[in-house]
Amino acid sequence: MMRFARVGLALAALLFSACKPAYNLGRVIDAAQPDSVALDLLLIGDAGLPAPGGEPVLKALGQVVSWDPKRTFVVFLGDNIYPAGMPDSAGAYRAEAERIINTQIDALRSAGVRGLFVPGNHDWEAGGSAGWSEVVRQERYVTHRGEGMVAFAPAHGCPGPVALDFGQTLRVVALDTQWWLHAGPKPRGRGSPCRAGTEREVVDSIRGVLRSAGDRPVVVVAHHPLVSGGHHGGYFDWPSYLFPLHPWARMGGYFANQDVSGTEYRRMTTALSGAFAENPPLVYAAGHEHNLQVLKRDPARYLLVSGAGIYGHTTAVRAITGSQYARRASGFMRITFLNDGRARLAVLVVDAAGKATEDFSMWLDTRPSTTAT
Length: 373
Known about the structure:
The protein has helices spanning 2-19, 56-65, 94-109, 131-146, 178-181, 199-211, 245-251, 263-276; strands at residues 37-44, 72-76, 114-117, 150-152, 162-166, 170-174, 218-221, 283-286, 292-295, 302-306, 323-327, 331-338, 343-350, 356-364. The chain is an alpha/beta fold. The chain has a single domain, classed as Purple Acid Phosphatase, chain A, domain 2 (4-Layer Sandwich), CATH 3.60.21.10. Strand 1, helix 2 and strand 2 form a beta-alpha-beta unit.
């Protein structure tokens, strides 16, 4: 009995040490001077269940974006309404769904800041048969409520890409990655309202918007990460292995439609990697994992995971190949594009009082003359 206890403790210690739950915390570089800033891009994901009494993360976001609304743009990275998107007007959950999305939209409108919502799997009825209707309904609601300040893309449940240019400073490319994973009805083929209605057409269109960006850096925004050091990437905290069937099954691709190991998910990541190969975007930013990750690795130059948009709604994470930063915490990310072509990435962690603290920052390699600090 004592022998088995020692073995169990040793195994637990090994799993705990392998998890590396945080990496590069507190690494911060000098801030950019306000008069050198061309555009601030804020990235926040999985914000679709704000606290009714006031959401700390959205409070912090509102304070951060208020510095100069005209030079600020916010992207919500999907899962904008938990648990299953926007029901119809007769649905029992409709009032709560409206409260949830209104809280996010109004956080931007009250600050006079422009923004964009991209859809996630929960916005598609968490993969349910009515998912297409749910995401189109959310699109129409956001478009109406946003009054030209806040948009939703891609439209009609289409996969995208949709390109938004900010002069010569930046091109943002929006994708709906749930379109690739959704098993129910969705717009595809010749009869769909989508300009790119097949997987091949989507890949060709992405190549086109990357190629035509010219000297602009490109940030691709979507919901699903291409790799991750969190649960969806196959990495679990050590207590999960005390009940090993679930994590091992997911790592093997079972019950894993929303995990990197899933068959359709792998098909999507392979296709997107091919689309990025010729002209890799500066950043591919996603949510889905409820943590904060910065990775420097293919198929983009940097991969960001910013899915911690609700205070306390976080999941475990570990450092993996290419990790520059990894932390289980609530918050969001900020990329500051400067007039001289440089880009500064910052990770902002939010506490229960709604105070944002910069926990990590670095210069992104935007051009050969720029070196990371």
